[in-house]
Amino acid sequence: MFLKALTYNQTPILELKDSLLQEANVRLLIKCEYLNHPLVSGNKWWKLKYNLVEAARLGKKRLLTFGGAYSNHIYATAATANELGFELVGIIRGEETLPLNSTLAFAKGKGMQLHYVTREDYRKKTEPDFQKKLTDLFGDFYLIPEGGTNELAVKGVAEFANSLLRELKFDYLSLPVGTGGTIAGIISGLDAEKKIIGFPALKGAQFLEREIRTYTDKENWQLMYDYHFGGYAKSTKELTDFMEQFERAHNIPLDPIYTAKMMFGIFDLVKQGFFKRGSTLLIVHTGGLQDRL
Ligand SMILES: *Cc1c(COP(=O)(O)O)cnc(C)c1O
Questions:
Q1: Ligand 1 pocket member 72 (CB < 6 A)
Q2: CA-CA distances (angstroms) from residue 221 to 123, 145, 180, 190?
Q3: What is the pLDDT of residue 67?
Q4: Among the four residues 108, 173, 204, 280, which has the most C-beta atoms within 10 Å?
Q5: How far is CA 59 from each of CA 62, 80, 131, 142, 287, rounded to the nearest angstrom?
Q6: Distance (Å, rounded) from C-alpha 253 to C-alpha 220?
Q7: Ligand 1 pocket check: which of 65, 286, 289, 290 to mutate, most ligand atoms within 8 Å of Cβ?
Q8: Could you tell me if the CB of 287 is within 6 A of ligand 1?
Q9: 181 C-beta closer than 6 A to ligand 1
């Protein structure tokens, strides 16, 4: 079958042990979704799944998507599209810099045609005129939006969230947030008893609330805006120190853009007594480790 090439590996759930957690009487479980596919690593597998099914159903030969030069979505799309035999165009924000960084070198190696557009043009990427230009340039394609977020991505992640309900009991679920597609899917796939807590990786991310509400009308979720460490792909010594110490203590790798910020935020909230005593928090490790696995 078509999706067989998109092999999904079942991933473990590990419990984090720490004196702080004992004192707070909170259980932290971590769903190691970064191990779900050797190349896709994480939430992008679920976001791409039904988009790839739909592209095949429509008989599309070519996919086109968007991203920055370090985009995990570009990497994941290149990996899966190549395995499934699609041609692939990546519209990349900004100018070409050589040598290509590891993300773009990988994408190119997987056959992605890289097409660079100015930041100004990139901002127009959802406008009909711009999309018409792309059709003139590249012919017919199946469009996957930036970050892979659309209805079909939300459907895929909801399926993942639903499978978690069958696997274990928990009170809270936490995950990092970029475009909001993954958290929207998690909210959709869980029951209303759970509380979902998202950690945006970018600064000034309040606009995400509206974005998320386009996919769900549930209210059992909250975004924590104070853990962006300066903004998207920005970092501080406090964050890198925390990341090193966490990896040493728990032997679970983090990525500096998404999962490290979330984990820092979770431990900070535990310290503040945010989580009810006796409760269980399930953390979704969304990946972002393709350079390290
Ligand atoms: C892309 C990505 C996210 C953000 O997902 P959204 O659906 O855009 O919110 C979170 N974590 C990792 C590791 C990612 O690569």
A1: yes
A2: 29, 24, 12, 11
A3: 95
A4: 173
A5: 9, 17, 20, 9, 30
A6: 29
A7: 286
A8: yes
A9: yes
pLDDT at residue 282, rounded to an integer: 98
How far apart, in whole angstroms, are the C-alpha atoms of residue 169 and residue 187? 16
- Sequence-distant (6+) residues with CB within 8 A of 53 are 2, 3, 152
Atom of ligand 1 nearest to the CA of 176: 10
In whole angstroms, give the CA distance from residue 135 to residue 138.
5
Residue among 32, 71, 72, 216 whose CB has most ligand 1 atoms within 8 A, to mutate: 72
Atom 15 of ligand 1: nearest residue by CA position: 288
Q: What is the predicted pLDDT for the residue at 245?
A: 97
Test site for ligand 1: of 182, 232, 261, most ligand atoms within 8 A of the Cβ: 182
Radius of gyration of the chain (CA): 19
Give domain limits for the chain.
2-42+155-285, 43-148
**Mean pLDDT per 10-residue interval, the chain, length 293 residues:** 76 97 98 92 94 96 96 94 93 96 96 97 93 96 95 98 96 97 98 97 96 97 98 95 97 96 98 98 95 64
Closest ligand 1 atom number to CA of residue 179: 8
Ligand 1 in reach of 149 Cβ (< 6 A): yes
Which class in CATH covers the domain with range 43-148? alpha beta
Which CATH number does the domain 2-42+155-285 belong to among 3.40.50.10260, 3.20.19.10, 3.40.50.1100, 3.10.50.40?
Answer: 3.40.50.1100
The answer, yes or no, to whether any atom of ligand 1 lies below 6 A from the CB of 180, is yes
* Residue of minimum CA distance from atom 4 in ligand 1: 178
Ligand 1 centroid–CA 23 distance in Å is 31
Alpha carbon of 288 to those of 133, 201, 219, 247, 269: distances in Å?
32, 12, 28, 15, 23
